[in-house]
Amino acid sequence: MFSRLQVRPVHGNRPRVQRHLSVFIALVFGANIAYAQADGMTLDEALRLSSQRSSLTKASAATVQASREAAARAGQLPDPMLKFGLENLPVEGPERWSTTRESMTMRRVAVEQQWVSADKRAARTDRARRATEAEEGNYLADLARVREETAKAWVTVLYTQRSLALVKAVEQQTAQDLMAVEASHRGAKASAGDVVQAQLALTQAQDAVRKSEQELKTAKLALARWTTVPVEAVADQAPTLVSHVSNLPIEDLEKYHPVVLKARRVIALADAETAVATRERRPDWSIEAGFSQRPQLSNMVSVGVSIPLPVNRVERQDRDVAERAAMGTKARLQYEDALRETQTEIRTLSSTLESLKDRLARLNAELLPAAHQQAELATAAYRAGTGSLSSVFGARKMLLEQQLQLTELEKEAALTWAKLEYHILPHGLALAGRTEQ
C-alpha cells in the first residue's frame, strides 16, 4: 500500500525514529481503545429504532390490521334487503296510472334476508383468521429483514470506524517518516530520491484516509436508512459471534424463522380456503316477508323462499373445490422447498462463520505477534547499526497491513454472524405472532 523508504542509517535520527516507532505501535494496537471510549449507537439501540420506525414494518402492520378488520365481519350474515314496489298498476283505460281506482293495484313493502348456514359462516371465519395469520407472517418476515439489514449496517459502520483509525495511524506515521527523511536530507545523509519516496508514501496514506472517510460516511447513511435517525458513530462493542441457530430443530424453525413460519401459515390458509369452497357447494337460501296494501280490498301478507339451483355443480362448484385443493398442494410443496433452502442456508452460514472464527484465532495467535516481532527486530537492528531505516519502515508497514487484514476478516465474520443470527425472530414476538413490539 505504501512505498518502502530506502534511507541509509542515520545515528543522529535514531532517538526520533525510536519515538516514532513507539507512537506507531501504540496507535496500531490502541486504535480500537480510542473508539471504545467514545459514545455511540449500540447494536441493540439500532435494532430497537429500526423495528419501531421502519416504514416497511409499519406498512406490514397496517396490512395485518386491515386483515383483522376483515376477519371480524367474516362470520356475519349479509345485510337484509328492504324492498318497495307497486304491483298491478293499470296503463290503459280510464284507470290508467291510477294507484287507487283499480282494486288489484297494491303497494308492497318486503324484507329479504339471505341465510348462510352456521358451518359455512364458521368456515369463512376460520379462513379470515388464517388470512390474518398469513399477513402476520408477512409482517414478521419484513421485521426480520429490517433487523438483519440493520445489524449488517451497524457492523459495517463499526469495522469501517476501526479501519479508518488504522489508516489515520498510517498517515500520522508516514508524515513523521517524511519529517525524519527531510531532516536526514538536510544533513546530507539522505538522498532527494528518499524524500520523494517519503512524499509519495504520505500522499498515498492521505488518499487512503479520504477513501476510508467516504466509506464510513456511506456506511453511516446506510445505517440511518434503517434507524431513521442520523448516526454519528457506533459503540465499539464487537458482537460475540456466537449463534445457536444451527442447532434449532424444525419445530423451532416453524416458530421463529420467518420464511418457514410464513410458508407454514400459507398451508393453513390454503386448507381453510378449501374448507370454504367445500361448504360453498351448498347454495345459500333467501327468505322474504312482504306486506301488500290494496285500496279497495283486504291487505295481504306474503312469505317466500328463494333457493339457487346448482344445475352444473361438477363444472362449477366442484371445480372451485379442486382449484383450492391444488393450491393447498402448491403451498405444501413450497413449504418443503423453503424448509430445505433455509436449512441449507443456515448450515452454510454456520460453517462459514466457524471457518472465519478459526482463521481469526489463528491469525491473532500467529500473524500479529510475528509482525510485531519483526518490527521490533528491525528497530533493534537499526539501533545496533546493522539495519536500515527502510527496514524499520517496511516492518511497520507490514504490521499495519496485517492489522487491516484482520479488521477486514473480523468484519466478514461479523456480517456472516449478523445474517445468521437475525434470520431468527425474538422468541416472544414470534410466539405472540402480533405486530406490537
Description:
The chain is of the alpha+beta class. It has 10 helices and 4 strands. Strands 1-2-3-4 form a 4-stranded antiparallel beta sheet, with no helix packed on it. A hairpin with a 6-residue loop joins β3 and β4. α1 runs antiparallel to α4, α4 packs antiparallel against α5 and α7 packs antiparallel against α8. The longest helix is centred in the middle third of the chain and has 69 residues. The chain starts with 13 loop residues before the first helix and ends in a 5-residue tail after the last helix. 32% of the residues are buried.
The strands making up the biggest β-sheet line up spatially as 1-2-3-4
Give helix % range: 55-70%
Enumerate the spans where pLDDT stays under 50 for 5 or more consecutive residues.
1-38
Discrete helix count: 10
Oligomer: single chain
Mean pLDDT: 84
Gyration radius, rounded: 39 Å
Outline: elongated
Distance between the termini: 48 Å
Largest sheet: 4 strands, antiparallel
Helix-strand pattern: HHHEEHHHHEEHHH
Strand percentage lies at 5-15%
Structural class by secondary-structure content = alpha+beta
Number of strands: 4
Strand-helix topology:
Blueprint: H1 14-36, H2 43-53, H3 55-72, E1 81-87, E2 106-115, H4 118-186, H5 192-227, H6 250-256, H7 258-279, E3 285-293, E4 300-306, H8 317-383, H9 389-421, H10 427-432
Antiparallel strand pairs: 1-2, 2-3, 3-4
Helix pairs in contact: 1-4, 1-8, 1-9, 2-4, 3-4, 4-5, 4-7, 4-9, 6-7, 7-8, 8-9
